[in-house]
Amino acid sequence: MLTDSHAHLDSSKYEGELEAVLRRAWDAGVEAVLTIGIGEGPAEMHQALDICRKYNGKTGTRAEGQGTREVQASPLLYPRLYASAGIYPHNTDEADEAAYARLDGLLGEPEVIACGEIGLDYYHDGSPHDVQKRAFVRQMEIAAARKRPILIHCRPRDGDNACWEDTLQLLAEHWGPSGLGGILHCFSGDWTHAERAMEMGFLISFAGNVTYPKAQPLRDVAARVPVDMLLVETDAPFLAPIPERGKRNEPALVAYTAAVLAELHGVTGEEMASVTTKNFRRLFRLTSDV
């Protein structure tokens, strides 16, 4: 069974359709999804947790002989959902003390297993870089106190290595000593970036862009990452993999990304699904019933 380690299920692109999206994910062999709690800003960090509470353990009915019987909708109908909470780099200019207090409270909830996605983004014009850095460090401090792994967003400008260098330097200074690790979400860097992060306990997660024809350098990196350090994700509703590129992405499509990673490592799709799910559970100290 697969785990989608990063999906934005609170996106408006799923409005009115989320139940069907989750059912398709379960039918495609996705047993768990980490739904990302950044919303459109700090005021919406709670939405991922709300989705977890709506669909985890929900009861329903289905035909059973001449009548019906009550059944658990999870795991029979939907993947198990986990949540994160964090302040996205481009929203860090909105991060005040109330936002940090809200984040701390959310990280104390049992369903919220990670802080993120947090980090740096130098690709788009958003919050100033110094503001992003301060908020990144503050959120690492909050996550460390709550003992929650972190989900890293790092997007440099094309041809500029500054974002990666700043991200990895801040992680080495403020996070590595915690020993809590985390995930480099939607990895797009080179081998040296992956290697430095793995030394700090980070798993490397690949999204649908690793399937794109022009992504051979990224596939070359993916082939070098040890299988016990790999994760798969959709980053849904973005980055739909080949052959669905250009369409709205959703957790069911994580199987295409897993298949590419399986081919790169010379294993079956089922083996890649199993090992990446085990990696996810190991990082977050989860058991099948937690």
Task: Produce a short descriptive summary.
By secondary structure, this protein is an alpha/beta fold.
What do these coordinates show?
The chain has ten helices and ten strands. The protein is 38% helix and 20% strand. β6, α5 (129-146) and β7 (150-155) form a beta-alpha-beta unit. An eight-stranded parallel sheet has the order 1-2-5-6-7-8-9-10. It has a single domain (2-59, 69-284), classed as TIM Barrel. The radius of gyration is 18 Å and the shape is globular. It is α/β, with parallel strands linked by helices and 290 residues long.
Major beta sheet summary: 8 strands, parallel
Task: Count the domains.
Answer: 1
| Strand percentage | 15-25%
Question: Class, according to the CATH hierarchy?
Answer: Alpha Beta
Strand segment count = 10
Number of helices: 10
Decide which structural class fits the backbone. alpha/beta
The strands making up the biggest β-sheet line up spatially as 1-2-5-6-7-8-9-10
Features:
globular, alpha/beta, 10 strands, TIM Barrel, 290 residues
List the helices and strands and how they pair.
Blueprint: E1 2-7, H1 18-27, E2 30-35, H2 47-55, E3 59-64, E4 67-72, H3 73-76, E5 80-85, H4 97-107, E6 112-121, H5 129-146, E7 150-155, H6 162-174, E8 182-184, H7 191-199, E9 202-206, H8 216-224, E10 230-232, H9 254-265, H10 269-284
Parallel strand pairs: 1-2, 2-5, 5-6, 6-7, 7-8, 8-9, 9-10
Antiparallel strand pairs: 3-4
Helix pairs in contact: 4-5, 9-10
